[in-house]
Amino acid sequence: MEKPVTLQSQGEQMIGMLHLPGGKGPFPAVAIYHGFTGTKVEPHRIFVKMARALVEQGIAAVRFDFRGSGDSEGDFANMTVSGEIADGIRVLDFLQEQPLIDRTRLGVVGLSMGGAVAASVAGKDERVKSLVLWAAVALFDIFEKEEELLRQARELGYADVGGNVLNYSFYEDARTQEPLAWAAKHEGPALIIHGDEDPTVPVAHANLYYNAFPGTKEKFIVPGADHTFNRRDWEEKVINKTAEWFCNTL
What we know:
Elements: E1 2-9, E2 12-19, E3 27-33, H1 46-56, E4 60-64, H2 81-97, E5 101-111, H3 113-124, E6 128-134, H4 147-156, E7 158-161, E8 164-167, H5 169-174, H6 179-183, E9 190-195, H7 204-212, E10 217-222, H8 232-249
Parallel strand pairs: 3-4, 3-5, 5-6, 6-9, 9-10
Antiparallel strand pairs: 1-2, 2-4, 7-8
């Protein structure tokens, strides 16, 4: 079963889609966090496919738009990493409130900046039993390297990111974020997936996460893959590996 759902985070509505297996439950569940300028669908509907693959394995999934993204309330201009971490924790609250969900068996998967959010949530919140990162940002100075956008933000107070207005406060907040330090506090299993031809977040970020996690961990590199696994065989490898990981660790 797939049904639209809503929740409130810091006074604003978030819109999502809950995927539930057939049967009585309770089911383990995975929260899926999208990337910078992304949505609960992501390119080539990879998040929809991921959620459905989990359901086939008897695992529930929920996809949400962070506040200011997709269908959710809020303005992208006001988006910060701290705000998305708060949203991510609120999604775990939502899962725990569902009668068909096993509140002791929660996982998180995050893509790109959503991966940094996922790592931070896993370090902050012991409810995250298992974690998967897709092409995850490990160091937020990656945003500082977009020099023209940073110049705009400093001079105008905002940057124009492909039509998305982004306030300078995003950069100020990002400089305070330490996802690797939070990753080191997550003692549960962690899978790091990355394409070795990722032009957006270098594969070196995967190595940083692998070294940070203290518990059971695995690094899965997809040869030739780009940032969002934009080829059918890359997508299948990522989805199958992720589903297998959660089957074994939740």
